[in-house]
Structures are given as structure tokens and as C-alpha cells.
Design a protein that fits this description.
heterodimer; A: alpha+beta; six-stranded antiparallel beta sheet; five-stranded antiparallel beta sheet; 15 helices; 41 strands; B: alpha/beta; five-stranded mixed beta sheet; 23 helices
């Protein structure tokens, strides 16, 4: 009895202490060699810890393509095979060699990808569900120190960054990443770094305000000192991001102003800092005291500024506590105009008082003008959507990313930007995928493409409400994510205290954000170079025009393509453009024009070169000091390229420009049979075929005369009616599995701008409004991109395409829409590769 | 040896205790959390909680060794706050909540304290298929058809699990002061036009107070009254809308679909919604807009909106007292009809028990009058006396369709009007939920099986003074009040179409669709019609249009937010 009791207790104790007497550990067996596989997904891919990716057994290479003065990341995944349990592993990297040139291993950083557990799927992205996703990046030496260099699940990721210097010589560098498994076997993963022959600027050109919250630092770092804040701020700067606040300490107003100015000087001189907010104490408010205080602050800042260091260049105002997201709260909404007016008054008063004091007269004339302008144009950030009722041009709008999802909306914000001076945007709990997010259960690629969109849509800054609101509900932020604020919203850093590090630990999301910011610098470089080329060629060389077709591959209307290969290919194209601008041949692609099934590339080259495209020698026409060329191809292959070869003596250089997938005219309204496929949804719509002689155009087309069905006496009778032209997809030759984009040529003869909506409708009655466009008088092209990126349940489900028009003026249901007349020429489908 | 064993035991126990403490965060109040104990958290509103307490007591008697504790809570959506806490912080085994939580259960897999569950809640499919204590009819057939279809049958058909079981049947709608009706010989209206004719009768009455402290003083009788604190008009608005459009249309609306199953914002422009808004405008409106577009005061106002700012208890008291309401120096207004629900008697019982039992106060449930605009869908729509015909048809239906159908009506008319008459709104869609991490899942299920038995149903209804479980039960032997009896006349037939909550569907619970009490920009519909300042009055047609425009704007994004597109 006693013996049995003893045994029971003993086993109980052992059970409680977690020791298993029965399991044998295979890796203890000396004759078992590690069986693991290595594979290298893109750095913008999140590989979940416990998911088996069956088709990912590529030959692993850590591959980088980057500029000088850049940091770029890559990752490899260790996946044990045959139930092998990896108890520990080690990673060592070598120097990277390119002939006599070396990128030191000290420029290479290795991180263990730590996994955090998603307990509830929140974001709409079904690629990530409940489970462990990678995000915190723990320096590998700390992983070893804390015995975390082992494999808990199916996969273990290692993230490796390479940093090039400004003087790194361009070329292809190779090295090795050695991975030792359990001390028994060493594996070599090749590293290949292609360094392009241009450097990106030290200075960051996309503005950001990413907030650090002291209270949250206290929760997890157990320290909320200025020093800790500085560490977080410095960490943000490492990722080319700016902290919202300069963390001025409390004190008298004069003390606050003095400290603010000191810190503003440091920030202004720091090329990594792009923006900072003023302190809130004393200065945020709409009463007279706040106004007076702001004037005092601005005047002091003006007097502390110099020509070389204008402290207003990066200053912003962000009264987040008063007017953040006013669309959600009537009280905050009611404060927007008073805030705008009070801020404006303080700016104007500042300038007036300084003028009265004769301050500007003491300055260089140009600088004085610059200073006045900067004071009057201090951005006043409003994190919320446009509202007509707000003071026109009074706020620096900073709406959510999805507010830029249509041309129409972008035009509204562009108008406000023109009046106000700047335009920002932000994301937080919303929007969700398929828009870019910083959520844990979402793709990383969106966060990187975001900066390309900022260039395309001329957005000056990106705001993020908090970088360190580590989850306050979980026992450890490193273990389980609280879905309350969306998974991962509000934090990009993790507390270093858990690993004996003073300061924060970064994340894959931060690396991606930095990568995106550095991508933007590519465009900045291109913009600079094209100015010189404009002079050379004696014509306006637009970086935007050069880039547009490449950018169109990455995203459409803020919906980004999730194709990582596509992204890196596009990035590489842009690098080629930059290289080509500085190369002797001065090759400049002015963009690709798509008309019908044809694509025409226009480009300029140094006149000393002979040019052939796709094997055919072509001649150009003089253009400044060079020549301009044009070449057309039919987009009838699965992949269509322009292969442009430039020769000068023995020297030969090839530029390969991707024109896209196959393009097919799926409906040609010169043909009666195609005209017959178009149906109107009412007798008020008259459809006919018109030949070239009978109208203003030069081709046979379909004509649609659209009459309104609206009785002002009975305005509700036809409230839901909108005239439509519908085409069944079965009647036209769409290959739904591969459809990437659609182009439609449409002529507006209504005598005024009219609105058309292009809709794709599925067999379940779901309508996806792909494009809303105001048709100008004359020819328009509807470009409907990003079809493949939509969340269709198989494109085969699309059964109709619809052109929908308004039935009443402004869709207000008050006044009938006058007759609308449009002509349709062709519908062109472009396919993915 | 003995001492050695003792020492080992102590060490082991110490280790056990230490590790046990380590699994709980901090030192907390001790909670009985064993499979033999059922911890219930119950939403307490006007229904009170005595019903479940009495049922629980009987359950314990029938199941020796099993115990139940009941905690009351006034927050109907407490589940949303608590479920995420996980088992280390939340030991509730069974929630009797004030609503349903499809926004949680539709998310599927959840992790609590490191353990993965298929769902936040326990599947109750087996309970639906089982029988109540001592009975042979399966629960799925015992529960009111509309409820069973909504919570179980439709889910089963879609190969999904059911996580909810309803615990309040009952009804919400219009209550009338039956004593007043009897005194003045008023007829309970069956159409809205008849209702407005009744309103004219009511406002023409010169009434005198019978309150001992103000006897003989003039007291005004308003046809309707309500409190903005808990308006309850939303229920009636929905019913008129559904009467007109049909219940299938309503459920499709909740999903964002039209009758063809297509996702379209055009559903917000339904005629039923417009007609319903027009009726409520007449009920509440102090103003109207004439043909010239000018705002004019209505000659006859059917609701004294100045009273609506008082709290609901005060309003309910004045209503129940009727002419017995006290008239003070400022005068007094009572009312003949108000929107309310089955909880009314229980909620007011403290002050009114003796008045009710003595017959001084009497009130009954009124079947919601059929919206007169429905005649547009009938064969007699062009008749001069179309509403009279409609009333005749309804009364024939109410009488059990005894005798010949009125000759002017055809099969389609009978079907449309019968369906309209069968629309009833339950008091709420309150449900029972078992958290997936509960330590007493089997016990909770067993309790539910008992709850649905006739025995428990009778205990339940006896304790609540009127609210019943949503089960078909013969309440013979149970003393029901007049109010309770009148409610059963409204709800008691098996062909009643209870209007279940639209919050089952993402398009609704994600906020994509407007509801009557939340028209964007104009705020609450009822509040904006019942304005005191004429410049604030809006035509319902304008509000209707704005509603439609708001729904149409960003429709695409709403579909994406709901995970549909």
C-alpha cells in the first residue's frame, strides 16, 4: 500500500514537473542524421509555422537585388523532414565577394523569425487563419543565448538582411550562409547579391508620423524614461520612419518651447526624420490661450530657424485628441472647423506679428519668403475622410487607404491637397485586405507596395497611430495576439526586455515598411535623373510616364497584386530604368501605349547607338541630342516583350520590357454580331450599329441612346432604375481563368461629362463595381485593371459585364438625366501570363 | 518508511499546489468550477430572473449532486466582452444572453489559453435532436417553428452547426388599455386605416380623471404614447414593412439580397419600408409638408411627443393607469395604446399587482393592425371601400376562416393578407450559449433539455407573469393573467411567422444595412418625425431616399467587409 502510494506520488510529481519517462528523443540517437529541407520564399511572404507548404521545395538561394546605401531582406525556411526534431541550429554567414570587392559579413544581420499566435481570424485574408505567423525578428545571437534556436513547429524562418554602403561597387556578390543542425550536419545556402549601379539617398523623401506611446512602454519595457523613448525613436529612424512626437518633457511653457526647439533642430538635421508634431500641452486647443501659445511657439521656432535648418520644413500639427476620426463621433466632428480656423489664425497671426517686429527684414529675401510660406502651410493633419462641411482646403486630409480606391475620390483629395499643400493617409484596424494593411494576418506585400502608391497618387505622408501598443490582454505579447484591435494593429515593435535588450525588437512588418520606403527612393532617383534627360532630349521626360505601366502591374486603385514574383520583377524594371538613365546610351522608355491588341513602346536613345527591337532594326527621329523611337507589337502571345538591343561598335546592351500577357479584342462593335450581344434594360435605351460615315468618329461602332425614366411628380417610382448596357460573357470570347484587365473604348456624344460604372456580375448576382469614370466628351478608354486580384470564387463565375449610367442628375432622384449618347468601339481583354 | 512517505506526500502536494497556483493569474475569489456545478449568467431585463431560478431549483431536486448558481447581469451583450477571456478568467458555463452572437460564431476556430476550439461556443446540434426531460417530441419540433428553423434547421441544411438555443418566446408589439376600450366602446383595429379612425375617436373624447387626488379634472387621452428611452416602435415598423413585403423578403434583406437572391442596395428602396414609414409618420408626426412644400402643423396629433422624453417606467405607469392617472397643475395625458411587449406586466407588477387583480387596470396585447397599403397588392385595390373589404377579410381570417371567404377576395388575396396577419415579432432573440471551454458542458446541455420540458415551461411562465419559453406547451393548470391570455391569442398558433433577428447575417451585423432606428444623418426615424421644431421636420420620402443613397454608397465595400465579395 505504501509502496503503491509512493509510486503514485512519484509519478504525480513527475507528471507535474513535466518530465516524461516514456518518450525517446530520436535526435539523441547518434546514428540519426538531420533530415531537413531549406527553401527561400520572398521576404514579403509570411510562412506560417505549422502549415505544410507542399510545393515549396525550390533550390534555396538567398537572393538580393538592391541599390547602394540600401538595406534589403531575404529569408530562408528550415523544414525538418521525416519527423526529425531539430533541437538546436546555428547560422553563420560569410563575407560577400565580387571580384576584389567585399561586402563584409558585418553588414549582414541574421534574425530568428519568432511566431505569434493568431487566435481568431479578423482580417478578410483567408491565406492566414488561426495559427502561428512570423513577425518578431530576434537577433540570432539572442536566440542562441535564450535557447530559442530550435524548431518547434513544421517550419522555422530565418530572416537575413544585407546592407550596402554608398561606395559599394556595383556587381554580383556571392557568399554562403552555413546552417548547422544539432551540431551534426552543416548545410550551405548560397547568398547572391546583385548591387545595382546607383545609390539611394540618405535622406528619406516620404513623410511619416508613427507614434510611440509612453504608457505602453511602461507596461512591457517597465520603463518610460526619455532614454527609453529615444531608443524607440532611434529604432524607428533605422526603419526610415519618424516618431510623431519629439517627446518634449513637461515643464513651463518656456521650457517646453526651448526643449522642442532643441529637439526640432536635431530632427530637422536628421535625414531619416521627415516630420514631427508640436507638443500638445499648451498648444493643442481652440481657446484663446492655446492660440496665443501657438503663436508664441511658432515665433520662437521661426527665430530659431536658419536657412540651412528651417524648423518648419518638417513640422506638422496633429490634434489627434480632439479631431481624430471625426466621422465616428459627432462631438469630434463639431470640432473640426473650429480647430482648422484656430490653427489658421495662429499661423496668420504669427506671420503678422513677425512682420510687425521687422523679423523678416533681417533675413535673406528668398529665405524670408520660404519661412513665411512654411509657417502658413504647416500641415494640419485630419485623420478622417473628406466632408463638404469642413473648411475647404483647411485641413491636411489623412484618410484611410481605401479612400483612394477610385479616381473620383482621388480627385477630391487632390483638389484639397492643392489648396492645403499636403495630403496624407493612414491605416489601422481598417481598411482590411485587399487593401494594404499592417495586420499580422495579412500579406506583407501590401505594406511594401504602399509607398509606390504614395508616389502614384501624390500622397505626401503616411501616419500610424501607435508602434508599441503591445497586446495588453495576453500573458505575453510574444505568444498570443489579442484580436480585439485586429491582429497586430497598434504595434510593430516588440519589447526587448524579454531578451535582455534595452530598447525594442523589430519585426518583419517593419522590415517591409522600410523596404517600401527605400523603394520610393528609387523613384526619387529616377525623377532626378529624368530632369537631366529632359534637357538632353529637349523634351519633357516624365518619370511618371516611364513608370506607369510598371506601377500598373503592382496594383490598381489601391488593390495590390499579391503576386510576389510580379512585384520583384517590376522593381527590377525600375532599377533598370534608373541604370539606363545614367548609362551612356541614356535609354529612356516613355511608356507603353495599348491600342486594341497592339502595344506600342516609345523610347529615346543616345543617337550614337543603333537600335533593334525584337530582332528588327529600326530608325528613329532626332530628339534633342538623341533620337526617339517607336515600335509596335501585337499582344498575341502569352508573354509579350520588347527586346531592345542597343549597339555601338562592339558594345551591346539589351533592355527587355514586359508588355504583358495576351490581349484580345473580345468584342468589336464594327461587327453586327457583336453589336447584337449588347442589351439595354428598358425601351428607353436604343441600340444600333453606326457606320463610320454617319457620325463624328472614323470607325463603325455601336451607338446607345439612353433616355431617362424619371417622373419628377413621382420621384420614388423609379428610384432604383439605372439604365444599363449589358453583355453576357458567354456571348463574347473571355477566357475567364486568365483575365487580368479589360479596356473599353467609349465615345461620349452627350454634350457634357457623364458618369459610367463598369460592373462585373457573377452567376450569384454579386456585382463588383470595377470602375467609375466620368466620360469626357469624345473618346475615353476605360481601363479596368486588377481583375485577377479580386476575390472572385473563380473568374468563371462572371456572367455579365455591365455599363451602368445615372438615371437622374447626380443620382439625386430630383431631376431627370438628359439624354446620354455613347458609342462603343471595342472591348479588349488582357490576360495574365 | 512511514515518515518518508509522509514527506514525499507533502512535497508532492506542495508541488501540486504550486503548479495549480501557477495556472491561474493572481489570487482570485474561489469559484466552484467542476463538472457537477453549473454556473449560469443570465440577462436581467423586464422579465426578471425568478423564472430560471425556479427552474434551476427544480432541476437540482431532480438531479441530486448537481448544483446551479445564477448570476444576474444587465448587459445583454456581456458574452462579447467575456468570451474572449478564456477559461482561466471566465468560468461561466451557460449564458442566458440578451441577444445572439453570430458575429462571434461565424468566425469559426478560436484559441483560448493556448487551446484550439472549433468555435467559441459549443455546438448544440445534439441538444436540438434530443428530447426534453420525460418527453418524446424532439426539441427541434417542440420549439416554436420559426425559432427552430432560424437557429437549427437552416444551419443544418447549410451543413453548419447550431450554437444557440432560444430561451424567450413571447412577443413585442402594441398593448392597449382594454379597460379604456371597454369603457368607450372602441373596437380593436385590424388595419392601420381603421387604427387612424380609432385615433380620431380617441382624441374626440373628453375624459375625466378618476384618481382620488384629481377626481373630475380633465385628462387628455392620446391615442399613443411611448418613451424615447426605450422606444419599441422599431418592432412595429418592422412588422408593417414585413406585412407588406413578405417575410422572405425581410430575411433576404438582412443578407443584402433581393427576392432573386442578388446582392443589391435596391432592397433598401422597398415599397414596404416606404409604406411603413408613412404610417409611423402619421402616428408620431406633429407636422406634415403640404403640396407647396411648407411645413404645417397637423390638426390632429396622435401622439403627445412632449411626454416621450420621460423615462419608460413613468410612461408605462401613466398608460396603465389610464383615466386613473393623476392630473397635476400642468394637466395630464394618458394614452390608449403603446408599443411594448410581454414583459410589461412583470416589469410593472410591483406597483400594479393589486390594481390588476382588482380589475382597476386592464391591458391586452393587440395584434398589429395590417398595413392598409397592402390593398395595392390585392384584387380589390381599386374598390372605393377597399379598406373596409380588407378589414372584413382580416376578421374572417382572425375568426379561423370559418364560413365562406368574403366574395371579393381571391386565393392570392387570402394568402397575402393571411401572411401579413401572421407576422409577429418575438420579444427578443435571446439565446443560450455554452462557451466551448466550459467545464460543465454536459450539465449545461442537460439543463437545457430540462428547461424545454412542459414541467419547466410551466414553472417558467408562472414565475414571469407572462413571458413564456419558446416551446409549444399546453399550459392547462397554469393560472394566466388576462394579459398573458391576450398574448397567446396573438402568438399562440403554429402558423405564426415570428420575425427573427436579422443579426444572423454579416451584412446586418457589420452595419451595412440601415435599420429604422438608425437612419444615417437623421439619426432615429422616430425621433426625427416627432420633432417639436417645424424646421426639423423631414418628409419620410426624403428620409427614404437618403436611406437608399446611404446604402448605395460604398455598397461594394460593405460586401467586402461582410466577406461576400
Amino acid at each position: 500500500m505504501r509502496k503503491r502510494l509512493f509510486l503514485i506520488i512519484l509519478s504525480l510529481v513527475l507528471a507535474v514537473s513535466g518530465v516524461s519517462c516514456n518518450a525517446t528523443d530520436k535526435s539523441e540517437q547518434t546514428n540519426v542524421q538531420p533530415t531537413v529541407s531549406f527553401w527561400t520564399p520572398y521576404s514579403t511572404e509570411k510562412i506560417m509555422r505549422d502549415v505544410t507548404y507542399s510545393n515549396r521545395q525550390d533550390a534555396p538561394v538567398l537572393k538580393y537585388e538592391m541599390a547602394k546605401n540600401e538595406v534589403e531582406g531575404a529569408q530562408f525556411i528550415i523544414t525538418p523532414l521525416s519527423n526529425y526534431k531539430v533541437k538546436s541550429f546555428n547560422v553563420k554567414v560569410s563575407d560577400l565577394i565580387c571580384g576584389d570587392n567585399v561586402i563584409s559579413k558585418n553588414n549582414i544581420s541574421v534574425y530568428l523569425e519568432k511566431y505569434v499566435r493568431i487566435t481568431e481570424q479578423i482580417n478578410r485574408n483567408n491565406a492566414y487563419g488561426v495559427g502561428f505567423v512570423p513577425d518578431p525578428l530576434l537577433p540570432f545571437d539572442k536566440a542562441v543565448e535564450y535557447n530559442e534556436n530550435k524548431i518547434e513547429g513544421v517550419n522555422q524562418g530565418i530572416y537575413v538582411t544585407v546592407k550596402t554602403e554608398k561606395d559599394t561597387v556595383a556587381g554580383t556578390y556571392v557568399g554562403t550562409c552555413k546552417v548547422d543542425i544539432d551540431g551534426k550536419k552543416e548545410f550551405n545556402i548560397p547568398i547572391k547579391v546583385i548591387v545595382w549601379d546607383f545609390a539611394i539617398s540618405d535622406e528619406v523623401h516620404t513623410k511619416s508620423l508613427f507614434d510611440i506611446w509612453g504608457g505602453y512602454m511602461m507596461n512591457y519595457e517597465l520603463e518610460n524614461t526619455p532614454e527609453m523613448y529615444d531608443l524607440y525613436e532611434a529604432a524607428l529612424n533605422e526603419y526610415n520612419l519618424s516618431a510623431t512626437s519629439l517627446n518634449v518633457q513637461d515643464g513651463t511653457m518656456d521650457e517646453v518651447i526651448e526643449e522642442f526647439i532643441d529637439k526640432a533642430i536635431v530632427a530637422t538635421n536628421n535625414p531619416k526624420v521627415t516630420a514631427y508634431d508640436i507638443p500638445t500641452t499648451y498648444f493643442e486647443g481652440i481657446n484663446n490661450d492655446a492660440l496665443t501659445n501657438r503663436v508664441k511657439l511658432f515665433k520662437a521656432v521661426a527665430k530659431a530657424s536658419t536657412e540651412d535648418c528651417c524648423l518648419f520644413d518638417k513640422m506638422v500639427l496633429y490634434f489627434g485628441t480632439m479631431i481624430d476620426e471625426p466621422q465616428l463621433d459627432d462631438d469630434r466632428k463639431a470640432l473640426v472647423n473650429p480647430v482648422i480656423n484656430s490653427v489658421e489664425l495662429s499661423k496668420v497671426q504669427t506671420v503678422e506679428e513677425l512682420e510687425e517686429e521687422g523679423f523678416f527684414n533681417t533675413l535673406d529675401k528668398d529665405y524670408a519668403e520660404h519661412l513665411k510660406e512654411r509657417i502658413l502651410k504647416i500641415p494640419n493633419i485630419l485623420t478622417g475622410p473628406y466632408e463638404e462641411e469642413y473648411v475647404d482646403g483647411g485641413a491636411t486630409y489623412c484618410p484611410l487607404f481605401d479612400e483612394f480606391s477610385t479616381e473620383e475620390k482621388r480627385a477630391v483629395y487632390a483638389d484639397q491637397q492643392q489648396k492645403n499643400g499636403e495630403l496624407w493617409w493612414y491605416g489601422c484596424t481598417g481598411p482590411c485586405y485587399p487593401f494594404p494593411t499592417y495586420h499580422l494576418d495579412d500579406h506583407l506585400l501590401g505594406a511594401r507596395v504602399l509607398n509606390w502608391m504614395m508616389y502614384d497618387y501624390n500622397i505626401d505622408g503616411n501616419l500610424y497611430w501607435c508602434v508599441n501598443e503591445v497586446d495588453t490582454h495576453s500573458s505575453s505579447i510574444y505568444d498570443e495576439v489579442n484580436p480585439e484591435h485586429m491582429n497586430g494593429d497598434g504595434y510593430l515593435f516588440y519589447p526587448g526586455i524579454n531578451y535582455g535588450i534595452r530598447g525594442p525588437i523589430g519585426s518583419m512588418r517593419l522590415q517591409t515598411i522600410r523596404d517600401g520606403i527605400e523603394d520610393y527612393e528609387y523613384i526619387y532617383e529616377l525623377e532626378k535623373l529624368t530632369k537631366g534627360l529632359s534637357e538632353y532630349y529637349g523634351e519633357e521626360i516624365s518619370a511618371k510616364a516611364m513608370l506607369q505601366s510598371t506601377l500598373d502591374k503592382m496594383y490598381s486603385n489601391v488593390y495590390y497584386s499579391v503576386d510576389n514574383a510580379n512585384f520583384y520583377s517590376a522593381r527590377s524594371e525600375i532599377a533598370d530604368m534608373i541604370s539606363s538613365c545614367t548609362a551612356e546610351e541614356k535609354f529612356v522608355s516613355k511608356g507603353i501605349e495599348y491600342i486594341g491588341e497592339n502595344a506600342t513602346i516609345n523610347f529615346n536613345v543616345n543617337k550614337d547607338y543603333t537600335v533593334s527591337v525584337n530582332g528588327q532594326t529600326i530608325s528613329g527621329t532626332t530628339c534633342g541630342q538623341g533620337k526617339t523611337y517607336s515600335y509596335t507589337i501585337k499582344m498575341d502571345k502569352a508573354e509579350n516583350f520588347f527586346s531592345i538591343v542597343l549597339n555601338k561598335g562592339a558594345e551591346s546592351k539589351t533592355y527587355t520590357i514586359d508588355a504583358g500577357g495576351r490581349a484580345v479584342i473580345v468584342a468589336d462593335f464594327a461587327k453586327e454580331t457583336d453589336v447584337a450581344t449588347v442589351k439595354g434594360n428598358g425601351e428607353n435605351i436604343i441600340i444600333s450599329q453606326v457606320n463610320a460615315e454617319s457620325w463624328a468618329g472614323t470607325e463603325d461602332v455601336l451607338k446607345a441612346e439612353i433616355n431617362s425614366v424619371f417622373d419628377p411628380e413621382n420621384p420614388l417610382d423609379n428610384i432604383t432604375y439605372r439604365p444599363e448596357l449589358t453583355i453576357k460573357t458567354a456571348d463574347i470570347d473571355f477566357d475567364m481563368n486568365k483575365l487580368s484587365s479589360i479596356k473599353v473604348r467609349i465615345y461620349n456624344e452627350s454634350g457634357r461629362e457623364i458618369k459610367v460604372r463598369f460592373i462585373m456580375r457573377t452567376n450569384t448576382g454579386l456585382e463588383n463595381e470595377m470602375l467609375v469614370m466620368n466620360l469626357k466628351s469624345g473618346w475615353n478608354t476605360l481601363n479596368i485593371d486588377g481583375i485577377a486580384e479580386e476575390n472572385w470564387s473563380g473568374l468563371n463565375s462572371i456572367t455579365r459585364i455591365i455599363f451602368r449610367f445615372d438615371n437622374t442628375e447626380n443620382n439625386e432622384n430630383k431631376v431627370a438625366m438628359p439624354k446620354q449618347v455613347v458609342y462603343l468601339s471595342q472591348i479588349l481583354a488582357q490576360y495574365t501570363r | 518508511m512511514k515518515n518518508f512517505v509522509k514527506k514525499i506526500t507533502c512535497i508532492a502536494m506542495a508541488i501540486l499546489i504550486a503548479s495549480a497556483c501557477g495556472t491561474f493569474t493572481g489570487c482570485r475569489k474561489k469559484v466552484v468550477n467542476t463538472p457537477e456545478h453549473l454556473q449560469i449568467k443570465m440577462y436581467k431585463a423586464g422579465n426578471g430572473t425568478q423564472s430560471i431560478k425556479d427552474v434551476a431549483k427544480r432541476f437540482e431536486q431532480l438531479n441530486p449532486g448537481k448544483t446551479i448558481s445564477i448570476e444576474e447581469n444587465r448587459e445583454p451583450r456581456i458574452v462579447e466582452d467575456e468570451i474572449a477571456n478564456g477559461p482561466s478568467l471566465n468560468t461561466v458555463d451557460l449564458y442566458l444572453a440578451g441577444g445572439s452572437f453570430f458575429n462571434i460564431s461565424n468566425k469559426g476556430t478560436r484559441v483560448f489559453d493556448g487551446v484550439t476550439y472549433d468555435n467559441a461556443f459549443v455546438s448544440l446540434d445534439d441538444v436540438w435532436e434530443s428530447t426534453p426531460y420525460g418527453e418524446t417530441t424532439p426539441i427541434k419540433d417542440k420549439v416554436y417553428t420559426a425559432f427552430a428553423d432560424y437557429y437549427y434547421n437552416s444551419e443544418k441544411e447549410a451543413n453548419r452547426h447550431s450554437y444557440y438555443m432560444p430561451w424567450i418566446g413571447d412577443w413585442a408589439g402594441l398593448v392597449y388599455n382594454s379597460k379604456m376600450f371597454d369603457n368607450y366602446g372602441w373596437t380593436v383595429p385590424v388595419t392601420t386605416d381603421e387604427m387612424f379612425e380609432l385615433c380620431e375617436q380617441i382624441i374626440s373624447v373628453t375624459a375625466k380623471s378618476t384618481n382620488p387626488n384629481s377626481k373630475g379634472k380633465d385628462i387628455k387621452i392620446s391615442p399613443f404614447t411611448y418613451s424615447r428611452e426605450d422606444s419599441y416602435w422599431g418592432t412595429i415598423l418592422d412588422e408593417w414593412w414585413i406585412q407588406y413585403d413578405g417575410i422572405e423578403s425581410y430575411y433576404l434583406f438582412a443578407q443584402g439580397k433581393n427576392l432573386d437572391g442578388e446582392y443589391t442596395p435596391d432592397i433598401v428602396a422597398s415599397q414596404g419600408i416606404l409604406e411603413s414609414m408613412r404610417v409611423i409618420d402619421k402616428v408620431l408626426g406633429t407636422y406634415y409638408i403640404d403640396d407647396n412644400g411648407s411645413v404645417k402643423a397637423r390638426t390632429n396629433v396622435y401622439t403627445d411627443n412632449t411626454l416621450s422624453f420621460r423615462n419608460y417606467t413613468s410612461i408605462q405607469s401613466t398608460f396603465l393607469y389610464g383615466e386613473k392617472a393623476r392630473v397635476n397643475e400642468a394637466g395630464a395625458t394618458t394614452a390608449a395604446i403603446m408599443p411594448n411587449g410581454g414583459w410589461l406586466e412583470n416589469e410593472m407588477i410591483t406597483n400594479f399587482e393589486s390594481e390588476i387583480s382588482s380589475g382597476n387596470v386592464a391591458f391586452k396585447a393587440m395584434k398589429t393592425p395590417v398595413i392598409s397599403a397592402i390593398v395595392k397588392k390585392t384584387s380589390f385595390k381599386d374598390a372605393e371601400d377597399k379598406d373596409l373589404k380588407l378589414r372584413e377579410l382580416i376578421r374572417w381570417i382572425d375568426g379561423g376562416k370559418v364560413g365562406e371567404r368574403p366574395s371579393f377576395a381571391n386565393d392570392n388575396d387570402e394568402l397575402i393578407v393571411t401572411n401579413a396577419r401572421n407576422v409577429v415579432t418575438p420579444q427578443s432573440t435571446a439565446v443560450m450559449i455554452i462557451p466551448s471551454y466550459s467545464s460543465s458542458i454536459d450539465l449545461a446541455k442537460d439543463f437545457i433539455k430540462f428547461l424545454y420540458s412542459d414541467e419547466a415551461a410551466k414553472i417558467f411562465i408562472s414565475a414571469t407573469k407572462g413571458i413564456e419559453l419558446p416551446v409549444y406547451c399546453d399550459y392547462t393548470g397554469v393560472t394566466l393573467s388576462e394579459f398573458q391570455k391576450s398574448k397567446f391569442e396573438v402568438t399562440g398558433r403554429k402558423d405564426i411567422d415570428f420575425v427573427m433577428s436579422p443579426h444572423k447575417y454579416p451584412m446586418t451585423y457589420m452595419g451595412a444595412l440601415p435599420t429604422f432606428n438608425n437612419i444615417n444623418e437623421y439619426g432615429s426615424l422616430t425621433a426625427n418625425l416627432a420633432v417639436s421644431n417645424p424646421s426639423d421636420y423631414r418628409k419620410v420620402e426624403d428620409m427614404f431616399l437618403l436611406n437608399y443613397k446611404t446604402a448605395s454608397n460604398g455598397w461594394q465595400q460593405k460586401l467586402k467587409d461582410a466577406g461576400i465579395l
